[in-house]
Amino acid sequence: MIDIMNIQALNFDELTARQLFHILKLRQDIFFVEENIIYPDLDDMDEDSIHVFATTEKDNKTIIVSYARVYFDPVEKHVKVGRVATASAYRGQGIGGKVMRRCCEVAQDRFKASEVWLDAQLHAIDFYKSMGFQVVSDVFMEAGIEHVRMIRRNLFICIHPRFSLASFS
Questions:
Q1: Calpha distance 29→86 (Å, rounded)
Q2: CA 81 distance to own-chain centroid
Q3: CA distance 84 to 65
Q4: What is the DSSP string of the chain?
Q5: CB of 47 within 8 A of CB of 12?
Q6: What's the pLDDT tens digit per position in 53-103?
Q7: What are the structural domains, with CATH classification, of the chain?
Q8: What pTM does this model have?
């Protein structure tokens, strides 16, 4: 397991140019290069999002290794997590889970949300289920990839993973 230096949650205007560069590079590396998605990544949600990311040191530079954004969707009228990405070299080490727990904290603290929604690629369903999310839709296509809608209704469990989900059912 790598030593994560920091997990930050910043408004768009609080991001440095270097942080924004590394966020966009990570998203490009995952969504365009790795997953071959051809759709506009940048949208109007970025400026209104809280950007949650994990950093570490590599070659004497701080790099972003995992990322997600949290925002209020004005069309669907709920808080969503999106653009979840972890660099391939850092997967399977618990970093994405830490970023998602921070996203739940942001949803609760900054947006006063009691639930958070996301659209999950099918291969990531088990990861999100381990965070307390539940599938609430049939499969649908988004950006040429199969997804399902998922909701985490009790953010306390997401923030405090030591509690068993069964104890809250």
A1: 10
A2: 5
A3: 11
A4: -----EEEEEEGGG--HHHHHHHHHHHIIIIIIIS---S----TTGGGSEEEEEEEEETTEEEEEEEEEEEEETTTTEEEEEEEEE-GGGTTSSHHHHHHHHHHHHHHHTT--S-EEEEEEGGGHHHHHHTT-EE-S--EEETTEEEEEEEE--HHHHH-TTS-GGGG-
A5: yes
A6: 999 988 888 889 999 999 999 998 999 999 999 999 999 899 999 999 999
A7: 6-168 (3.40.630.30)
A8: 0.86
